[in-house]
Aminopeptidase P family protein
Amino acid sequence: MSSYEARLQALREQLKADRLDGFVVPLTDEHMSEYVGSYAQRLAWLTGFQGSAGSAVVLPEEAAIFTDGRYTLQVRDQVDGRHWSYQSVPETSVADWLKAHAPDGARIGYDPWLHTRDWVARARQALADRGAELVAVERNPIDRVWADRPEPSKARLVAHPDEFAGKSSAAKRQEMADWLKAQQADAAVLSALDSIAWTFNVRGQDVEHTPVALSFALVHQDGTADLFVASEKLGDDVRQHLGNGVRLHERHAFEPHLRSMAGKTVVADPERAVAAIFEALTGAGARVVARRDPAVLPKAIKNGTEIAGHHAAQARDGAALTRFLHWLFVEAPKGGVDELSAVERLQAFRQACGDLRDTSFDTISGAGPNGAIVHYRVSEETNRPLEMDSLYLVDSGGQYPDGTTDVTRTVAIGTPTAEMKDRFTRVLKGHIAIATALFPAGTRGSQLDTLARQYLWQAGLDYAHGTGHGVGSYLAVHEGPQRISPVGSSQSGGDEPLQAGMILSNEPGYYKTGEYGIRIENLVLVAARDVTGAEKPVLGFETLTWAPIDRNLIDRGLLSAEERAWVDAYHRRTLEIVGPQLDGEALEWARGACAPL
């Protein structure tokens, strides 16, 4: 089935054979992951959509694909509008669309290992209002027609040493055990892959860009745990690292094991554990308590060792990016540089800085109008040259054993227009507003989001993504629960109180469809601040990312004296951190790029 039209038709034939009138296709795996292994890329196989978030519904006579504002342009480029209607989230949800479009009395299938319990309840109610039924399938119908579907990764786990983790797995499990006692629960399910990696101080290679291993776990009130992972992925070193307090089982034994939990009180996370886990526990006679996965918050609040590791990783990564920006300054005006060659050169600079294990996501390398596609992914078909008098946006990051990086720079190739400088400076002002914000303990990311947008709003402008996401420690580049985003947006979650030790991105932007995109992104650490006369604890942000911001794009007249001082101080500190790692022409260029405004 070489064409997506043929794949859609094959799925419809399979649904008919399964006595189903439709099927829901989310972009996730059994762990509710954002980035998934190739074996779980069902949405991409069916539709051609290459984004990192979306879902689809297939009915006998129509089909719809659902994406948020980050992918408005991309989905239209990649998914054939003759066969799929484009639906925008959160304006439209899958449940609402089914309520309006499912045939009366229809049987709509879903895979209970790919949806949360709450989603199932909402979809079931929406269909009931239509006189239709939501039906759990035993085997995903896409898997039946996807003849060359890849096998799950067989890569081995590796131990993540305490010198990077800052706390032993035994200590983490004991803290969870104490929490379980307070909850009067016997065990907690861990199904999110980064939670398992963090809890057991292991890393893997099963998901591109995120160093995790396909697994499930149960942590018990006595501090012991059951870890469900393919035995072929475990070497003697990892078995020894895990120790006697961790009982090992095959991954496929997880569901049967849940069915043996009769009479137990088990905590399961309604956001991260799929519906099938709740159903297995409930069916076994366990008492299920819906609580957040106990690894989520301590994983988000970095300890001193993890913070020190981030500083070290960011310093190396900043030097690599600065070398790349110097190379771009020299080579792009000559012609011959395109989006793909820029990605290759940036990757080479990162590899040369030492200890790079992977990129933290597919590098977004957007020249001219491609920069306006928020989550653009360059390919041979879309590759554009970097042209004079245009903007180039590069959003990239690295995975290092001591930290995860994520940074965006927007660069003028040649001479920018007055409008480009105006938009860039408004984005910069919003970036500075976040970087310098002071706020009382208990403040949520949603309360800070408007600080980044205010200068764009003044000109009637905005951007269709959150301002900041959490970042892991050699783990997921998008890590919850903290965010800086409007509550109720497609990237909601900005209602988590920010706490010292959390790491987030600071990345306001502006995108002019068909012309250019602008984003300025650094990572920041939430830290305590001393404020004279403060009546409650005060927090602020410490910048972690160090690389030049393009001075040629700054309209100095739009900056206040305080904002100009921030830019100068930022560049002075950048030169202090990355300068000793540079030499020759790169160092001379960096001195000019970091000169005072």
